[in-house]
């Protein structure tokens, strides 16, 4: 018996090693990560729509303001268009193209630009009215009380707007960043569109800086945006973030001066270990560090120091390490939807590794020097975990591999497609599909779910939205990450 158990564990361990050693198809994963965004589209869908189970939706968005606010993306598994995370999603998609677009196959670069344009076209509408920014479409309370296809929406499509002098520095600053970054992504393929984006980025930033404050402090929008996408961490980081992207897009001294002179007063040294749709500090520091590493602007050295301090916390061998990892090796941050942290931190590691490589530098983490190769190897472990090299052998990207979540928390995916079931499904009639244990009938290819908890455990449960719901801002940075590994599978 003892001998047979030894053989069992030997062959079990060997089989697990062979599974984990199987190379991933990063090109396939890249294609699917971009395709996901077509499943999140709002508005009138084009002829070349590839997620065929989706249909037109939200075609009257904006009518209460006599505005066309159609288009854009639903942020996750619901049918609301939240401007704050949509702006961040757009910035990260554009940054993916700026840093890694040359590594993408031409078809996927085109698809990535299409995904960026879909969002930018909407963001341009949100700032088209002087001294006003439209920050959201859809009442989240009525939306979340229904389990309804976007094509059937009969919930309140309330429009939330902020008029000057009321502040919206966070959303306007993120919109400025998104349009400025996107202007760089389109610079070679569509110079006219690029110029339009940059001009409007400056306009959005002027609104953000002129009327300083958090958008969720406005009584007119607070009940709609909170607690979903409140500004929990302050608006100051978005001002620096927007200015940093405008500096990158224009190479202008005005925005360089802004970053230099406002860094302290806007809290550039605060919360430097965070990055996501609400807190831009770590991303801001990595972005600005490029100029310092290249020897162009020494006055921004504090941003570089903060970026490297953050990256040192990710390396277990360093004295400053304090990041949590699951037993299986995944970056873990409390609060749910954990893969939003893993994908965006991995993105920053790869971007900084590029900057280090180009300038032949390393990071001094006290007792350890960290190279570009080290950052890339650590990033690869996160990517491979997400794609299936984890204790459950489960791909957290829907449609990638043979074993992936089947019951994701997503209305359109879980309800019968309007193409197969054209009859209207009312608000509460969708509950039977939500409560069903059957797999979702429509595969939202490329969607990355919230992911496992701190113990690497994931139960394929539609109701557990913290783990089973995909979001646009989980996928967006992963596009750049996968582009890198598709071109460099063995860093």
Describe the structure.
The chain has 491 residues and is mainly alpha-helical. It has a single domain (26-45, 52-487), classed as Glycosyltransferase. It has helices at residues 2-21, 26-39, 83-100, 106-126, 140-144, 169-185, 191-210, 219-225, 236-250, 253-262, 281-293, 301-313, 339-359, 372-387, 411-414, 431-435, 465-468, 472-487, and strands spanning 81-82, 132-137, 159-163, 324-325, 331-332, 363-364, 369-370.
Helix-strand layout with pairing:
Layout: H1 2-21, H2 26-39, E1 81-82, H3 83-100, H4 106-126, E2 132-137, H5 140-144, E3 159-163, H6 169-185, H7 191-210, H8 219-225, H9 236-250, H10 253-262, H11 281-293, H12 301-313, E4 324-325, E5 331-332, H13 339-359, E6 363-364, E7 369-370, H14 372-387, H15 411-414, H16 431-435, H17 465-468, H18 472-487
Antiparallel strand pairs: 1-2, 2-3, 4-5, 6-7
Helix pairs in contact: 2-4, 2-18, 3-4, 3-6, 3-18, 4-6, 6-7, 6-9, 7-9, 9-10, 9-11, 11-12, 11-13, 13-14, 13-18
Helical/strand content category:
mainly alpha
Strand order of the largest sheet: 1-2-3
Mean pLDDT: 93
What is the total tally of β strands? 7
Q: Can you describe this structure in just a few lines?
A:
This protein has 491 residues and is mainly alpha-helical. It contains 18 helices and seven strands. Keywords: Carbohydrate metabolism, Cellulose degradation, Glycosidase, Hydrolase, Polysaccharide degradation, Signal.
Tags for this model:
491 residues, mainly alpha, Glycosyltransferase, three-stranded antiparallel β-sheet, two-stranded antiparallel ribbon, 49% helix, disordered N terminus
